User: Which sequence fits this backbone?
């Protein structure tokens, strides 16, 4: 079975990372193409897989971890279709149409769920039964993996849009979300931080206070994830989490918010083993896309 070939796509808002891999995970060919409009980007994607097929053999399945919003319900007639994305030209574009010529099964999931799967498979989430992976970057989202499958309801989760408690004297910033203003994404995403302070979190004046404030919002999500899903581990990644001291602040404030209510050996003193940084860095997405391709094979 190790010889079957998987076409893997990490579809981001600025670039697509494409790979041809064996089902064992070895990558045979890899490239990146800019995300412009579907007619151009999908054509470049097809060309890469055509060439890779010529060099290595036919593709047995595709795994796709994509930006959204996108329909990820395998039972839906619109499975794999971009829905209401503000990205010009992409609403209505469908991976299944673009890749139909290869005649291989396709599994599509979100970029966050893909990264969560990648971390579960070979990163900081190895060995977890249930894992929550959250990215704090341009947007905020959480992927939950249970026994190697990402969880969803009628659609993918939207943890970035819960509303954390606020102290307006401490943080009068009104928030940046076009739907909710001061939801988590409206307060703690990279664009919200830049809008509020005119700098990234590691460059603002009063850095310690700023890190503690943003940490309090993220800790609210961390505590909610524990209470809702009881994951074996929480991973926090994304550009904002690179700010020095932020993950320590999230651990400290999450522990305070839980207030000793959840007693389990997984929740270690100080949460240093429970709340962790990603292990795969930039490779989480494509690793997860390969795992999605493996699932499309039925393996
Ligand atoms: Zn929102």
Assistant:
């Amino acid at each position: 079975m190790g010889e079957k070939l998987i076409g893997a796509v990490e579809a981001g808002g600025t670039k697509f990372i494409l790979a041809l891999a064996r089902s064992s995970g070895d990558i045979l060919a890899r490239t990146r193409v800019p995300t412009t409009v579907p007619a151009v980007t999908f054509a470049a994607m097809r060309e890469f897989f055509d060439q890779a097929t010529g060099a290595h053999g036919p593709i047995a399945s595709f795994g796709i971890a994509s930006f959204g919003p996108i329909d990820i319900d395998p039972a839906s007639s619109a499975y794999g279709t971009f829905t209401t994305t503000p990205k010009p030209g992409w609403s209505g574009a469908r991976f299944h149409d673009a890749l139909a010529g290869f005649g291989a099964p396709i599994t599509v999931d979100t970029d966050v769920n893909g990264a969560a799967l990648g971390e579960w498979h070979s990163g900081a989430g190895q060995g977890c039964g249930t894992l929550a992976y959250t990215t704090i970057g341009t947007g905020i989202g959480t992927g939950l993996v249970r026994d190697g499958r990402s969880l969803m309801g009628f659609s993918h989760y939207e943890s970035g849009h819960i509303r954390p408690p606020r102290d307006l004297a401490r943080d009068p910033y009104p928030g940046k979300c076009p739907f909710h203003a001061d939801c988590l994404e409206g307060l703690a995403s990279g664009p919200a931080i830049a809008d509020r302070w005119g700098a990234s979190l590691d460059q603002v004046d009063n850095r310690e206070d700023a890190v503690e404030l943003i940490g309090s919002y993220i800790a609210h999500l961390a505590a909610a994830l524990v209470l809702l899903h009881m994951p074996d581990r929480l991973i926090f990644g994304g550009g904002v989490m690179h700010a020095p001291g932020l993950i320590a602040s999230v651990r400290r404030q999450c522990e305070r918010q839980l207030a000793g209510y959840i007693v389990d050996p997984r929740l270690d003193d100080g949460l240093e083993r429970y709340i962790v940084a990603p292990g795969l860095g930039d490779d989480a997405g494509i690793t997860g896309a390969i795992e999605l391709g493996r699932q499309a094979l039925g393996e």
